[in-house]
Design brief:
Shape: globular
Bound molecules: S-adenosylmethionine
C-alpha cells in the first residue's frame, strides 16, 4: 500500500489497484454473488459460519431496547440473530451493495422481522448516520473488503453512543503454520471451484480467498481498534483462528 495521497494504491485480493477503484470492484463482486450468497456461505464453510455468528451473539448479549447498526450487513444474518435474541431491540442494516440488501429484505419479510429493521445503502467509511446514535455496531465478514479500515473503525466510534460496543467477526490467521498451510490448500483450491460450480463465478471467490489472506492478524487488528479510540479491546479465536471475534467499547 503506498502513502502518497494522490496516487494511493491498495490491495484487491493479491492485486494492487488504485484506492479509488476498490469500492466499485467490491460492489461488482457482491452484486454478482448476491442471489447465491447465502447458499455459498453454507457450502463453503460447511455451515460453520452459523456457529461463528451464534458465538458473536453469545459474546454481544443483545438486550431489548438496544439499537444495532450492522455494517456490511448484506443479507441480514447478524441483524436477524440480534433481533431473535432481543425481540424488543431495533436494527439498521447498512451495506454498499443494494442487491445484497434486497435479498435480505425478502428474507426479513419471510421471517416476520421486517418491522424492527431498516435497510440503508451506505459505505462503512462514510456512514450516513448521526454521531452517537447506536448502542451496538457489528460488522461480520465485511471489514476486510473496506478500502481504508482505519476510517471504517473511526466511523464506528463516531456513530456509537458512549458506553456503546463494537464487535467484528472476520476471517483471521491460524497461529499454527501447519494448520494455516492446510487451510490455504483448501481455500485456494476448493473455494474458487465451488464458486464456479454453484454460482458460475470463479473470480469473485478467488478474490474472497485472497482478501482473507491479506487481512491483518488478530493482534494487529486489535491494535487498529485501539487506535480508533476503543477501550477494553479483546479478541477470541473461532475454529483455531480461521475466524476471530474482536470486541471494543466506546467509554
Ligand atoms: C461477505 S459479505 C458479509 C455479509 C454479512 N455481514 C454476513 O456476515 O453474512 C460482505 C459485505 O460487505 C459489503 N461491503 C463491502 N465493502 C463495504 C463498505 N465499504 N461499506 C459497506 N458495506 C461494504 C458487501 O457489499 C457485502 O454485502
Amino acid at each position: 500500500m503506498t502513502d502518497d495521497t494522490e496516487n494511493r494504491t491498495t490491495h484487491f485480493g493479491f492485486t494492487d489497484i488504485p484506492e479509488s477503484e476498490k469500492a466499485g470492484r467490491v460492489h461488482g463482486i457482491f452484486t454478482n454473488v448476491a442471489g447465491k450468497y447465502d447458499i455459498m456461505n453454507d457450502v463453503k464453510s460447511g455451515g460453520v459460519h452459523r456457529l461463528w455468528k451464534d458465538a458473536m451473539m453469545d459474546w454481544l448479549a443483545p438486550r431489548d431496547g438496544q439499537r444495532l447498526l450492522d455494517v456490511a450487513g448484506g443479507t441480514g444474518d447478524v441483524a436477524f440473530r440480534f433481533l431473535k435474541r432481543a425481540p424488543g431491540a431495533t436494527a439498521v442494516v447498512c451495506d454498499l451493495t443494494e442487491s445484497m440488501l434486497i435479498e435480505g429484505r425478502q428474507r426479513a419479510e419471510a421471517e416476520a422481522l421486517a418491522g424492527s429493521l431498516d435497510w440503508i445503502v451506505g459505505d462503512a467509511m462514510h456512514l450516513p448516520f448521526e454521531d452517537a446514535s447506536f448502542d451496538r455496531y457489528t460488522i461480520s465478514f465485511g471489514i476486510r473488503n473496506v478500502t481504508r479500515i482505519d476510517e471504517a473503525l473511526s466511523e464506528a466510534y463516531r456513530v456509537l453512543k458512549p458506553g456503546g460496543r463494537l464487535m467484528v467477526l472476520e476471517f483471521s490467521q491460524l497461529p499454527n503454520p501447519m494448520m494455516q498451510k492446510a487451510y490455504d490448500l483448501y481455500s485456494f483450491n476448493v473455494i474458487p471451484r465451488m464458486g464456479q460450480m454453484i454460482a458460475g463465478d470463479r473470480d469473485s471467490y478467488q478474490y474472497l480467498v485472497e482478501s482473507i489472506r491479506k487481512f491483518p492478524d488478530q493482534d494487529t487488528f486489535a491494535a487498529m481498534i485501539c487506535n480508533a479510540g476503543f477501550e477494553q479491546v479483546k479478541y477470541r479465536n473461532l475454529t483455531m483462528g480461521v475466524a476471530a471475534l474482536h470486541s471494543g467499547w466506546k467509554i
